[in-house]
Specification:
By secondary structure, the protein is mainly α. It has 13 helices and six strands. β1 and β2 form a beta hairpin.
């Protein structure tokens, strides 16, 4: 690891530690937990869309798959360690198979979006129609539109009776987000990540240079699905129930809006956009005068018109311009002094 990478990791850890210590003093850990989970979900789409150029309208499908996989496995196993692992692997494998069919089929971006959207709608309709007693996996009934309640929540590995909930669960989710963020950073700074960005910029040129574009896009697509599956499993533990709404079209649209508002093509932008908009939605949910969807749509329109690059790039450009001026002023004074002796 070079000096710059070590410096960035150190800054990430320090800032994360300060935020993890400070935020519970301002907001309840129950609310913060879901904001952290949504931040991880936003990061999953930000990875494949912002850095891979893969517009996915079905990130909610992987989110829901992770949640349902965890719930079903937890009921059958009675412990949370293996279900958490399966909640990451199942969406990753599903995305790898779906991605291989799409990318090796050389589908255009519009068709990729349509297929991922259709897959999400199919899963949503299927899970909604599983209310009958015949829809059982082991000891777990899928429950249809009522969902699956009453499964084993997160516990200390090897001790099913030692539940992790409340404040400790928030810290677990926060540390998981930091670890995922660092892994995404490492992936993007590796040769694989640099090639993925090159594919986003010019797919034909990267293919002519000898890179297997379809394989790399499939791997990146699966990595984003794995992160979304982990977020889904954490969400299932937070809510203690999984329902078909996890696969809904509204959920997919919200994830896309998070990335646009936060800043597409950045690592921090989707996290900030997800946490910020989710908190605004939570605050608006405590009143009935204004529709939440209307406010979310208005925020999206304002950002597209006035901050098309997103919140985080705009703040970064503002800070760089401010500090850039302060750095240039002493140099200008020195040059004036040198001219006049």
């Amino acid at each position: 690891m070079d000096r710059r990478a070590s410096h960035d990791v150190l800054i990430t850890l320090v800032v994360s530690a300060v935020l993890i210590w400070l935020m519970p003093l301002l907001i309840s850990t129950y609310t913060l937990t879901v904001l952290v989970i949504y931040g991880m979900l936003g990061l999953s789409l930000g990875l494949i869309w912002g850095f891979g150029g893969i517009l996915c309208f079905g990130q909610a499908a992987f989110f829901g798959l992770g949640a349902y996989t965890y719930a079903i496995a937890a009921i059958n196993i009675g412990e949370s360690t293996v279900p958490m692992i399966l909640a990451v692997l199942v969406p990753a494998v599903f995305a790898a198979l779906l991605g291989a069919m799409m990318f090796y089929g050389r589908l255009a971006d519009v068709y990729l979006g349509v297929i991922t959207l259709v897959v999400t709608l199919i899963l949503f309709k299927f899970v909604n129609s599983t209310a009958g007693p015949q829809y059982v996996i082991g000891k777990a009934r899928l429950g249809g539109f009522n969902g699956i309640p009453g499964f084993q929540t997160l516990n200390v590995p090897g001790d099913p009776d030692a539940y992790v909930w409340g404040d400790p669960y928030f810290y677990v989710c926060a540390v998981a987000l930091v670890m995922v963020f660092l892994l995404v950073t490492w992936l993007l700074r590796s040769s694989f990540g640099r090639i993925a960005v090159g594919i986003r910029e010019n797919e034909v040129r990267m293919g002519l240079m000898g890179y297997d574009v379809a394989a790399r896009k499939t791997v990146l697509f699966a990595a984003g699905a794995a992160i979304a599956g982990l977020a889904g499993a954490l969400f299932a533990n937070w809510g203690e129930i999984v329902t078909p709404n996890l696969f809904s079209l509204g959920q997919s649209a919200e994830i896309i809006i998070w990335c646009i508002v936060g800043g597409l093509g950045t690592r921090l932008g989707p996290v900030v956009g997800a946490a910020g908009l989710a908190y605004i939605k939570f605050m608006l949910g405590q009143q009935s005068m204004i529709d939440n969807t209307l406010i979310t749509g208005l925020i999206l329109v304002l950002f597209v018109l006035f901050l098309p690059r997103g919140l985080v790039p705009a703040i970064g450009a503002l800070l760089s311009s401010i500090f850039g001026r302060t750095k240039r002023r002493p140099n200008a004074r020195r040059m004036r002094r040198a001219r006049h002796g």
